UniProtKB/TrEMBL annotation:
One of its GO terms (cellular component) is membrane. One of its GO terms (molecular function) is phosphotransferase activity, for other substituted phosphate groups. The lineage of its organism: Eukaryota, Sar, Alveolata, Ciliophora, Postciliodesmatophora. PANTHER family: BB IN A BOXCAR, ISOFORM C, ETHANOLAMINEPHOSPHOTRANSFERASE. It comes from Blepharisma stoltei. The chain crosses the membrane at residues 30-49, 124-143, 155-177, 189-212, 218-236, 248-268, 274-293. This is Ethanolaminephosphotransferase.
C-alpha cells in the first residue's frame, strides 16, 4: 500500500501542476520529488517480494495487489515521462504507455502458461534512473542534443521500443518451449490485441485528434482497462482457473469508444468524442474499483479473512 501511495502522489503532483494537459513543464523540484517517489515505490515493491519469498507467506490477494501495482505504475510513469520528455499531448505519450503495457502483459502471460516467473526487476531501476537523468540534465538537453541527426529523446524512445520487442520475442519463445497449452496461450492474446486495436483506431481515425485533445484522459482510460485485464490474468494464475480474456465491461467500453470514433470519421457524428471519452473514463474507473472490491471480498472469504465482513458490520451498526 505504501508503494501504491507513492505512485498516487506522483500522479497527483503532475495533475496539480499541469491539470488535464500534459503540455507543460514541471518545476525541477517537483520532477526530482516524483523521481524519488518512484524509487520509493521500487524499494517497497522489492521489500514486499523478498519478504514474501523469505517467509513463504505469499497469498493470492497479495500477488494480485502486487501485480495491480505494476499495472498502475505503467499509467503513472507514462504520464510522467510524457511531461518531462516534452512529448506532452501527442501520440508519443500514448505509444510509451502502449509499449510498457505490452511488456507488462507478456511478463504475466508467460508466467501464467509456463508457471515460472522471469520478471526483469532491473527495468524499474532503469526507468527510475532515466527519470533522474531527465531531471538533472533537463528536457531541453534531450531535445537539442542530436545523435545521427536524430533527437536524443527519440533515440531513447526507439531504444525502449526495441528492448521491449526483444523481451516479448523471448517470452513468446519460452511459452513455445515450455507451455503445454500453446494454442490456448496464443488465442488468449486477443485481449491485448483488442486494446492495441483501440489505440490504433483512435490515433488514426479520430477527427478531433483525441491523442492531442485528451491524451491524459485517454491514457488513464486505457490504464483502468489494462489494470482490470491484468487482474483477471492474475486471478486465473493464483486460482489455477481458466483465463477468460477481455471481460465484458472492458469489451463494451473499448467498443463504444471505437464505434463513436469511427462514426465521426465516416461523417456520421453521434456524440462529442472528448465528452464520451470522459464519460467512459468514469465508468472504466468504477468498473476497476468494483473488480478490486469483488476480488478482495471473494478471496478473503475463501481464506477466512473477514476483513470486508467486519467492515460491513461496522457500517450497518452505524
Amino acid at each position: 500500500m505504501l508503494g501504491i501511495n507513492a505512485l498516487l502522489l506522483i500522479y497527483v503532483s503532475t495533475l496539480f501542476h499541469c491539470g488535464t494537459t500534459l503540455a507543460c513543464q514541471l518545476p525541477d523540484s517537483i520532477s526530482m520529488v516524483c523521481s524519488l517517489l518512484y524509487f520509493a515505490w521500487i524499494i517497497f515493491d522489492n521489500l514486499d517480494g523478498k519478504q514474501a519469498r523469505r517467509t513463504q507467506a505469499s497469498t493470492p490477494l497479495g500477488l494480485i495487489y502486487d501485480h495491480q501495482s505494476d499495472a498502475l505504475e505503467i499509467t503513472v510513469m507514462a504520464t510522467f515521462f510524457g511531461i518531462i520528455s516534452l512529448f506532452g499531448n501527442s501520440p508519443y505519450t500514448i505509444a510509451i504507455w502502449t509499449t510498457a503495457a505490452i511488456h507488462c502483459y507478456f511478463e504475466n502471460w508467460e508466467a501464467l502458461y509456463t508457471n515460472s516467473y522471469s520478471m526483469s526487476s532491473n527495468k524499474y531501476l532503469f526507468v527510475g534512473m532515466l527519470a533522474l537523468i531527465y531531471t538533472a540534465l533537463g528536457s531541453e538537453f534531450f531535445i537539442n542534443t542530436m545523435v545521427f541527426q536524430t533527437e536524443l529523446r527519440m533515440l531513447v524512445f526507439y531504444g525502449f521500443c526495441s528492448w521491449v520487442s526483444i523481451e516479448v520475442l523471448i517470452r513468446i519463445f519460452n511459452v513455445l518451449m515450455k507451455s503445454s497449452n500453446k494454442m490456448e496461450a496464443f488465442m488468449n492474446l486477443g485481449s491485448l490485441f483488442y486494446i492495441i486495436f483501440c489505440v490504433v483506431v483512435v490515433l488514426v481515425f479520430s477527427p478531433v485528434g483525441l491523442a492531442y485533445a485528451g491524451t491524459r484522459e485517454f491514457v488513464l482510460f486505457l490504464g483502468f482497462i489494462f489494470a482490470r485485464e491484468m487482474g483477471f490474468l492474475q486471478l486465473a494464475h493464483v486460482s489455477n482457473s481458466e483465463y477468460e480474456p477481455l471481460n465484458i465491461p472492458n469489451y463494451i467500453l473499448l467498443s463504444l469508444l471505437m464505434f463513436n470514433t469511427s462514426c465521426h470519421a465516416w461523417g456520421f457524428p453521434l456524440l462529442d468524442e472528448y465528452n464520451l471519452l470522459c464519460f467512459l473514463l468514469l465508468f472504466a474507473g468504477l468498473s476497476y474499483l468494483h473488480f478490486i472490491y469483488s476480488v478482495t471480498k471473494e478471496i478473503t472469504k475463501e481464506l477466512n479473512i473477514p476483513i470486508l465482513t467486519n467492515l460491513q458490520r461496522k457500517i450497518q451498526s452505524v
